[in-house]
Write a structure and sequence with these properties.
The protein is of the alpha/beta class. It folds into two domains: about 150 residues, 3-Layer(aba) Sandwich (Rossmann fold); about 90 residues, Helicase, Ruva Protein, domain 3, CATH 1.10.8. It is about 45% helix and about 10% strand. It contains 13 helices and five strands. The chain has a five-stranded parallel β-sheet, with helices on both faces. Strand 2, helix 4 and strand 3 form a beta-alpha-beta unit.
């Protein structure tokens, strides 16, 4: 969506199409939505502006909308640019009918300003929007309609291959015992998010650090007063299976089955292809009519007094 308009603008011009400008990443917390947005911007060598949703809201009347305009002006001047809205649900929640209760409807006014800027920002500029949220069901549907954030991409819990990659990435600078298998650990972490697995590896590392500090203090007590003492080998040279066992005993899953069900329902509502897959409904077969030339030929053969002859 982002690379092609930048690298192949002639193709879009040839087919007379304006490229999509917005995408929404949604899924459980801790699965790398923010990281993926940064990776996309880095891949296409474009500028990257990250905006946290709550940063836009202030207590002063009219200043929140001004913050939105200022951000879009900054993004236009830096095109090609990826404008990333993190925690989009804080400013993109469904508008209330009354508009009161939140600083005089500041949230509604910010959303209205955001929608207006998104409609007018993409013309003649390589400006793309990426939103991220773990509460997609409360977003205003005007925000995720085609033409704004029209590409809705589900970022699920990591599968086995992804879990292996996460473990290796987190521990790439850590000394790990040869008998600790990343593949085996990944199998034990079924249902863990990326953040949960990072915490697991950090707990194992902290356990190794605590053991190393305790061993060093014990050595100092033994060597106290012995100037010619021979240096001992490092008692804790790496992170071992024992450390991972201790970490696994305190590990937890931050995403529940109830949370996953909510995401599945949202996905089934806004992703027709996914709804067809889970519902077992086959894609409709379109019986295209014959082309115009053959239709006219038949008409001429059947009726000599045709008006167009």
């Amino acid at each position: 969506m982002i690379l092609y308009p930048i690298e192949h603008p002639d193709k879009f011009q040839k087919f007379g199409m304006s490229p999509s400008k917005g995408v929404l990443f949604y899924g459980p917390p801790g699965c790398g939505k923010t990281l993926l947005a940064k990776a996309v911007a880095n891949e296409c060598s474009s500028n990257f502006i990250s905006v946290k949703g709550p940063e836009l809201l202030t207590m002063w009347f009219g200043e929140s909308e001004g913050n939105v305009r200022e951000i879009f002006d900054k993004a236009r001047s830096a095109s090609p640019c990826v404008l990333f809205f993190d925690e989009l649900d804080s400013v993109g929640s469904a508008r209330s009918s009354g508009g009161g209760g939140d600083a005089g409807g500041a949230g509604d006014r910010v959303l209205n300003q955001l929608l207006t800027e998104m409609d007018g920002a993409g013309s003649k500029k390589n400006l793309f929007f990426i939103g991220a949220t773990n509460r997609p069901e409360i977003l205003d549907e005007a925000l995720i309609r085609p033409g704004r954030l029209d590409q809705l991409i589900y970022i699920p819990l990591p599968d086995y291959v992804a879990r292996v990659g996460i473990i290796k990435a987190v521990l790439r600078k850590s000394p790990v015992a040869p008998n600790v298998s990343s593949e085996f650990l990944a199998k034990q972490c079924e249902g863990f998010s990326g953040a949960d697995m990072t915490e697991l590896c950090q707990r194992a590392t902290k356990a190794a650090i605590r053991e190393a500090i305790a061993a060093e203090e014990e050595r100092k007590k033994l060597m106290d007063g012995q100037e010619d003492a021979v240096m001992m080998d490092d008692p804790v040279p790496c992170i071992t299976r024992v450390h991972f066992e201790e970490a696994m005993a305190n590990a937890r899953k931050s995403v529940t089955e109830y949370d996953l069900t909510k995401f599945e329902q949202f996905r089934a509502k806004f992703d027709p292809a996914y709804a067809q897959k889970i519902g077992g409904v086959k894609r409709a077969v379109i019986n295209w009519p014959e082309d115009n030339s053959s239709q006219f030929q038949k008409a001429e053969e059947e009726n000599d007094d045709d008006l167009y002859s």
